[in-house]
């Protein structure tokens, strides 16, 4: 579609389902960094690549709660916790469920991303009060093995199905700029939208090319192409939260405003996204003020 027609349609869809001037602010904390056995070509946490990311132990519950409290004090309403695992072991899951309970007690929504789940683990997360489980499809199913070979796109879908069956909301999106085509980007949006139901939250990441990873030299996709994908996601998933995620640091205020107009209504509001840097909170506050946006 012509860009202006696409934006008009996406914005109309957005207004029919959400307050167009309200944007959700989420914080993200890496609760276990580095040492992951998977080979995701974009990730510095893979043990297969030589990067600046060191392997660290799982954080203590008290450390996570302190970070969540600080994020809430700064205006975040959802707290996301990520661990660099292929999937959690039972002892690790016990620690995470305690983190979920403690963060929920602060009055925040909770989200975790722990990799692939085994039978029964999603129910334990549900019993702890988890609101959202993040498990991105990353890219189109047909392009998937160009980026990751240690697990399949179908493996991702299986974990999402377990999460959904346990009654936990799904947070699933992808990354743009992996070398995929426009057709791949469209297919990824369609695959997400055709889940029954679609994910309640859809993070759209703009690849941060990290030194030491196979995609370190990946070129940036066109800014308008990124905005088009946001608009397509909004039209295809009208009732989902569409989140501007990694890569926002490199976006101008004007580009972010265009993404909000196209239907994005959630951001990560913290200094760091796992191992990638994020926009300064003061810059976000200034942007909200300039655009007349209300934080939720």
Describe the 3D structure.
This protein is of the alpha/beta class and 296 residues long. It has one domain (3-284): TIM Barrel. It contains 9 helices and 12 strands. The strands form 2 sheets. Strands 1, 2, 3, 4, 5, 6, 7, 8, 9 and 12 form a 10-stranded parallel β-sheet that branches. Strand 1, helix 2 (61-73) and strand 2 (78-83) form a beta-alpha-beta unit. The chain starts with a helix and ends with a strand.
Summarize model confidence as the mean pLDDT.
93
Oligomer: single chain
The fold-level CATH name is TIM Barrel
Rg, nearest Å: 18 Å
Helix proportion: 25-40%
Specify the structural class: alpha/beta
CATH superfamily: Aldolase class I
CATH architectural label: Alpha-Beta Barrel
The end-to-end span amounts to 32 Å
- CATH C-level class is Alpha Beta
What are the segments in which pLDDT stays under 50 over at least 5 consecutive residues? none
Describe the global form: globular
